[in-house]
Amino acid sequence: MSDAPIPLLKDQPGGSAARFDDARARYNARLLSMAQALYSLASINMFSTAALAGQILAPAERWATLPITTYVIGTALFTWPAAHFMQRFGRRAGFLIGASAGIIAGLLATWAIFERTFLVFVFATFLQGIYQAFAQYYRFAATDVASPAFRPRAVSWVLMGSIAGALFGPVLISATKDLFAPVLFAGNFAAAGVITLFAALLLSFINLPRPQEEEGAGQGESTRARPLKALLAQPRLRVAVLTGMLAYGMMNLLMTATPLAMVGCGFTVEQSSWVIQWHVLAMYAPSFMTGALIARHGAERIAALGLLLTAVSAVIHLLGVRMENFGFGLVLLGLGWNFAFIAATTMVAECHAPADRARVQGFNDLMVFSTVALTSFLSGQLYALLGWKAVNFALFPMLALAAGGLAWLAVKTRGEVACELPPSGPRPE
To answer: Which of 6, 111, 177, 377 is buried most deeply by CB count within 10 Å?
Structure first.
């Protein structure tokens, strides 16, 4: 039995073009890719400048990364409500609410930097986290009407939009850093608010099923949502969530501390932005091929390859603090994240029916961004107290846990079904 959902074809009872429609899925994936591009510009601005702005505004250096932590806390707290809101009111409404939070965040952060108010700046990054909470569902939204064969490519297409952040993010940061000189970084957040406004305009054209449309399309299959406990009984889903959590957490742990470490080692803000640029490019550029690799070799193998590359990245960082160590290390870190996270996302998308979407996707992203929030906080604390090497050493227990999960799944599901969806047809009462 295949791990993928059973297709609901147009000529089956209850079938509908609203269920699987790859032409519609391609349109949405392209539009969501453009929205992802604009979101990524705001995101790379956050990770490149928030800690540096925090260093200026915070009462002590160890709190410099708190704005990034609250950014991720905002994401973690709103991933679950965002999933349920969109299950009830639709993806478009949710995405527009998220973008609105991002617009307000950009304006509020700009004001806070002018007024040198750290707490207001922290609250602004929290609002930016709400934007991210909704934006993280772009990758899942691309799969809503995609066939199982197109699903990995749909995820990859959306994430490819973030290449714009890698290519143009540092240019935007440099161009707007001194926009309101002598007040540093205020221009960065003002620009982020304007960019998010354009993202909201794009998202208003999305063509995804309304909740009522999906209910009608799903009449030939079970439409009763299963309890989360029953869903998590699937070994593949448990490992998929764990892999996504740790892949994103490890990447964030290193990326958050990198600008502080580089500036602390005598490099300029522009040089650290350049390294982040190549890191983000490595995070998303491989998406051109990641979907095809997953389709050919399986999500679990590609996730394992991603973990291996992450381990190599930490080793390179431990070998020195030259520009090439930061550069090559962050590139491999981004590549490892791409393989592991897209593979984990694909696994999650294959382990639930439409009726279970809010529970599974909401739980997955809640766990992912709770982990990212924790690593954001630990990153600043580890760097301030123990230094850059300690940040890198912290990766190895997480790598062992993620690799152990994939190995357990391989043994557990040998010759068995790792991920099973409810059978087609109504359930007996």
So the answer is: 177
Per-residue pLDDT reduced to its tens digit, 272-323 = 878 887 888 888 888 778 878 888 888 889 999 999 999 999 999 999 888 8
How many angstroms separate the CA atoms of 56 and 196, rounded? 25
Decide if 109 contacts 128 (C-beta within 8 A).
Answer: yes
Q: What angle do CA 156, 308, 348 make, to 5 degrees?
A: 40
Please, how many CA atoms are within 13 Å of residue 183, restricted to the half-sphere of its CB? Answer: 17
User: Would residue 353 be called left, alpha or beta, if left means φ above 0 and alpha means ψ between -120 and 50 degrees?
Assistant: beta
CA 252 distance to own-chain centroid: 10
Tokens (6 digits) for 312: 């190599």
Cα three-residue angle 252-91-166, rounded to 5 degrees: 35
Q: Where are the domains of the chain?
A: 26-207+228-412
- Where b means 16+ CB within 10 Å and e means fewer, 117-137 reads ebeebbbbbbbbbbbbbbbbb
Instruction: List the Cα angle 25/223/233 in 5-degree steps.
Output: 95
- Give CA angle at 418 (413, 422), nearest 5°: 150
State the pTM of this model.
0.70
> Which of 264, 262, 292 lies closest to 278, judged by CA?
262
In this prediction, residue 100 has a pLDDT band, given cuts at 50, 70 and 90, of very high
DSSP state of 303: H
Predicted confidence at residue 13, as pLDDT, reads 31
Burial of 429 (0-12, 13-18, 19+ CB in 10 A): exposed
Is the CB of residue 133 less than 8 Å from the CB of residue 79? Answer: yes
CATH number given to 26-207+228-412: 1.20.1250.20
pLDDT higher than 70, residue 17: no
116: left (phi over 0), alpha (psi -120 to 50) or beta: left
> Other CB atoms closer than 10 Å to residue 297's CB: what's the count?
12
